[in-house]
Design brief:
It contains 5 helices and 9 strands, in the order αββαααββββαβββ. With 187 residues, it is of the alpha+beta class. The strands form 2 sheets. A 6-stranded mixed sheet has the order 4-5-2-1-7-8. Strands 3-6-9 form a 3-stranded antiparallel sheet. Strand 7 (162-169) and strand 8 (172-178) form a beta hairpin. Residues 1-20 form the signal peptide.
């Protein structure tokens, strides 16, 4: 899994640079002009289908998934974090994938300062906690995997309004924007 996920940022770099350049033209006073811009309501999903292995990498501001970004101190906040983590631990329920593809989860990795397993943003007056979820699935019939329906993800986390998706598969590489009204993305 690490091999593909490590190569993915380099494969997507030309798209990210082009996107960042477009953003720069319209957003001159945004203090965080990095490629990994933190924007509430917007998440990123990288989906790579290589042979029979499907890798999914979801990066989202915590605000989209739990409704806040500060450390959970109240019981209510801790319950929201626990509920979001439990939902993220079930990728086959969040990402609707054709059953005919026969995909089974092989590995997952969830990281966030809210989960206590990722470094918090240092030196920033505005804490921007992200939640990163990585999944590796093995598909018995990958040719049947032609799309991913993100509708369940939007319903589960309604503060997520848009997902910028980068797809790499048998038909090449492309970037698409998914919304609750247009939640199906095709390889």
């Amino acid at each position: 899994m690490r091999r593909l996920l490590l190569a993915l940022p380099f494969a997507l770099l030309p798209l990210a640079v082009a996107h960042a350049h477009d953003d720069h033209d319209h957003d001159h006073d945004h203090a965080h002009g990095t490629l990994g811009a933190h924007e509430h309501g917007v998440a990123k999903l990288n989906a790579v289908l290589d042979g029979n292995v499907l890798e999914l990498a979801l990066d989202s501001p915590a605000m989209n998934l739990v409704g806040f970004e500060h450390a959970a101190s109240s019981d209510a906040d801790k319950a929201k974090v626990a509920a979001a983590r439990q939902q993220l631990e079930q990728p086959l329920k969040l990402f609707a994938i054709a059953q005919a593809a026969g995909c089974k989860e092989e590995a997952q990795d969830l990281e966030s300062p809210l989960f206590g397993n990722a470094p918090e943003a240092g030196g920033d007056a505005h804490q921007h906690a992200d939640i990163n979820a990585r999944y590796q699935l093995t598909c018995a019939t990958p040719g049947k995997l032609t799309q991913i329906d993100l509708g369940r993800l939007f319903k589960t986390f309604p503060q997520t309004q848009k997902i910028n998706v980068q797809l790499i598969g048998p038909n090449g590489q492309k970037g698409v924007e998914a919304t609750p009204a247009k939640a199906v993305v095709e390889f």
